[in-house]
Amino acid sequence: MENTQTATGLLSKLNALIEYLANPTRFMRFSQKILPWLIAATAIVLVYGFYLAWFKAPFDYQQGHTVKIMFIHVPMASLGMMIYALIATASIGSLIWRHPLADVAAKAALPIGAVFTFLALVTGALWGKPMWGTYWVWDARLTSMLILLFLYLGLMAIWEAIEDHSRAGRAAAILGIVGAINLPIIKFSVVWWNSLHQPASIKPSGITIHSDILTPLLVMWLGFTLLFIVLHLKAMRAEILRRKVEAMQMRRVERANR
Amino acid sequence: MMSDLEAWKHADFIYACYVVVGFFITALTLWIFRDERKQNQLLDELKAQDGKN
Hints:
Chain A is an all-alpha fold. Chain A has helices spanning 2-20, 24-56, 70-95, 102-132, 140-161, 165-179, 182-192, 211-257; strands spanning 202-203, 206-207. Chain A starts with a helix and ends with a helix. Chain B is 87% helix and 0% strand. The longest helix of chain B is centred in the middle third of the chain and has 42 residues, at 11-52.
């Protein structure tokens, strides 16, 4: 009962924050204030994470020091999926509630999600060659991650191809929501199909990683999550400014034509 | 038990992974930060020009 009340309270606070930030001017002020703190926190956590990964984490009894690739690969892969979930949520916000910053948030997250997913595939391949004996197999997990990368590229192509922001936003939002079907496929691919890829090591039923490896992994994950938040806020600010510049230029052209 | 030399057997792959990730993350960060600065400058220029007119 108490937990439900706390969750409801948190949700209403989050809702209030989202409503407060629906105004682009307020969002610009808010992001300007928190960005220096976020940048500092990101730098500290990432440096500490790299220190743990390189100098503190022991080698795995089977993988040797190749396990160091996992400290990058796992955060990249999980963030690649989480960023897409954020894009799908923002797409719903844009299509249904017409939240003014929803399509800005979705568009700004695209290149970051694409790079993170690409790096998850590359680091996975670099781990796969020494461990599996091959860079790539057409395995369900690997293939569905590749489809995720194509979804990111497709959404970026839509934004580039359609000049009108509202039309581009609607088209991208529809593909964004439809593409979310790929997320459970990625997540459960290792359960549903015979896969070379290992199943999840962090589950509600328990964690199968030793704390010496788990700690650097979680610190790196936190560092890259903070990095994503910083980059996303910056990219959103750039997009809001770009739209302001375009609006001012349009007004100038209209004035000149009168 | 694996020796430390054996554990570093695939060092090339580990270094390659960190170099590739470092390169792409740095490039992405610089691109996003530069884009924001560029749009800010453009907006300031337009506002200054509008002020003159």
